[in-house]
Amino acid sequence: MNYFLTLLLLTSTLTSCANVRRQLGQALITDETEMKLGTKFAAEIEAKEKIHPDRRLQAYIQRVATPLIKNALQDRPNIEYNIKVIDDPKQINAFAVPGGFLYVYSGLLLIAEDEAEIAGILAHEIGHIVGRHSANQLAAQFGMDLLVGITLGEDPLQLGQIAGQLSGARFSRDDENEADRYGVKYTVAADYDPRGLIDFFAKLKQMKNSRSSDLGKLFASHPPTGERIKHIEKLMLKYGVEGGERHRKRFLQATAGLRRAHSSAHSGYGRK
Ligand SMILES: [Zn+2]
Questions:
Q1: Is the pTM of this model over 0.70?
Q2: Cα–ligand 1 centroid distance for 267 (angstroms)
Q3: Which range is least confidently modeled, 4-8, 13-17, 111-115, 229-233?
Q4: Helix (H), strand (E) at residue 105
Q5: Which residues have CB less than 5 Å away from ligand 1 (the ion)?
Q6: Centroid of ligand 1 to alpha carbon of 269 (angstroms)
Q7: How far is the centre of ligand 1, averaged over its atoms, from the C-alpha of 118 (Å)?
Q8: I want to staple 224 with a disulfide (CB 3.0 to 4.6 A). Which of 29, 126, 145, 201 is the partner?
Q9: Are 105 and 93 in contact (CB under 8 A)?
């Protein structure tokens, strides 16, 4: 086990071979183990964060994600995805937990302008799950003994700490590139305009320039560098970009209540 772990660690940090990492990760952490881990972490996260009480909003996010998930299951079957909106208008973030749990903060929905932007973010996070990035990172960081212990019902002191760090996890550039690749592939397959992801990051960048306040964990863990944008544009050429939908009207209708409730909190954002 240790031998594999060392190899996993080495390949995660030294080489750019995503396939090797994925195969090693698969050998170390089965889908079943990953989902058990995810269930534990999700319980920790949901005990600390406030899940948004609006069922229609929750159902809406589920609907946006459904066609993306359908495509993701072709690359990694046997995962049960579970998507929830966290009620925190100040957090501009979304993150994936091993085993298929995805969380989107209401703060992110408040600055998005159409469904394609949200679909782009969700598809990218789904890409991290398909690529097993988080599970592999945890195995390398904390060791398999601890992770297996968690799935067996042992609740180590680190459980809360591990769950807490998932919302701000930083991945290698290779992992990010891979998540972008899956993200563009799934948004295009689901008939969304893949420019949504680029537009969202461009907006964050602009806001960062015009405001001194912190724009949150998503910006920090996903800096919208020129290199990243170029990579996404290349992927769009590969997977196709014509005819994708933005669904602006549908998005604005579904999030109208959210916007009304937080209009004062976000009056400084200069929205149109
Ligand atoms: Zn990412």
A1: yes
A2: 28
A3: 13-17
A4: strand 101-105
A5: 176, 179
A6: 24
A7: 14
A8: 201
A9: yes
